[in-house]
Amino acid sequence: MEDGVEIINGERFCRRFISERTDPYFLALRRGCEEMEAARQEQARLAAEAERKEKEIPRDPWRLVDVDTYEQTIEPTATGLRIHGLATTPTITSNSGASSSGAMKAKLPVPLLAEHKDHGSQPIGQVYFLRKSSRGVYMRAALFDHFAAKYAEDLIRKGEMQCLSIAHEQGSTLLAEVDGIRFWSDWTLKEISICRAGANPDCSFELYREGDDGRKFWQPSDASKRHEPRLPYRGPWKADQEYLPGDMTSHQGGLWHSEITSKGLRPNESPLGWKLVVKRGAVEKMEKAHAGI
């Protein structure tokens, strides 16, 4: 512009002047530009401060999925064997304690240990899913690929480790002690351990199969049946299907019980891997029921 009053650069004044001016009009115009720039910088500062404070606010990781029921989940980095089961319930344990399941606090991932041993540089796996309610805490976990975790996987597949146990973080709130029993009302989950024998008789786990929602562990109507004898019938035997200890399959007219983890091992060819429990008769009905006929 003439006389170099200012140069307009798209959106705001750059306030570059070719010659110094001191007339009142020019001074007022320059002061207005400076005030506008100061206001813009203050708005940017306030916006950045608000964004910083919002990020500092701790977000509740739990998502309400049903009455009195919350879940949280992450994508696991562990790529090994996956398990799921009941980690804790309000049942009084052999350690003379009881923890309120619905009051549990946790942040995923939670370490998965063996027998609560945490002396190494890393756990054997990570818990990546939790579902809590007043009835209990259901979990899913994945094992790591290091050779200590592989040894734990071997024990799991053999059925030698089937129980779960939890540990509290320090600072958990003791509600009261009654008759030597400690009741915890506000506590934070430190880790979950697989073990041979847990303190809580309700808490066990099994191998996780994709699509299993774990209803057998957390649904109230099924909770009382968890320890009753079950017949986990897997249908007619298939060579490409993996069978776990306790699975049932039919083959050549008989019903067979899996004694070990196997795949491609024919029931009638391996007395150590399979045990015949029902001969011809009722097996055909089970096969038809399994096929929905």
What does this structure look like?
The protein has helices at 24-56, 147-157, 215-218, 220-223, 283-291, and strands spanning 8-9, 12-13, 63-66, 69-73, 82-88, 97-99, 104-105, 110-114, 125-133, 136-143, 163-168, 173-178, 181-195, 205-207, 233-236, 242-243, 248-251, 254-258, 262-263, 274-278. With 293 residues, it is α+β, with helices and mostly antiparallel strands. The strands form four sheets. Strands 3, 4, 5, 6, 7, 8, 9, 10, 11, 12, 13 and 14 form a twelve-stranded mixed beta sheet that branches. A four-stranded mixed beta sheet has the order 15-17-18-20, covered by helices on one side. Strand 17 (248-251) and strand 18 form a beta hairpin. The termini are far apart.
Report the radius of gyration as a whole number of Å.
Answer: 32 Å
- Give the CA-CA distance, first to last residue: 90 Å
Find the count of extended strands (DSSP E, 2+ residues).
Answer: 20
CATH class of the largest domain: Alpha Beta
How many discrete domains?
3
CATH architecture of the largest domain: Alpha-Beta Barrel
CATH topology of the largest domain: the name is Serine Protease, Human Cytomegalovirus Protease, Chain A
Element layout with pairings:
Layout: E1 8-9, E2 12-13, H1 24-56, E3 63-66, E4 69-73, E5 82-88, E6 97-99, E7 104-105, E8 110-114, E9 125-133, E10 136-143, H2 147-157, E11 163-168, E12 173-178, E13 181-195, E14 205-207, H3 215-218, H4 220-223, E15 233-236, E16 242-243, E17 248-251, E18 254-258, E19 262-263, E20 274-278, H5 283-291
Parallel strand pairs: 6-13, 7-13, 8-13, 15-17
Antiparallel strand pairs: 1-2, 3-4, 4-9, 5-10, 5-14, 8-9, 9-10, 11-13, 12-13, 16-19, 17-18, 18-20
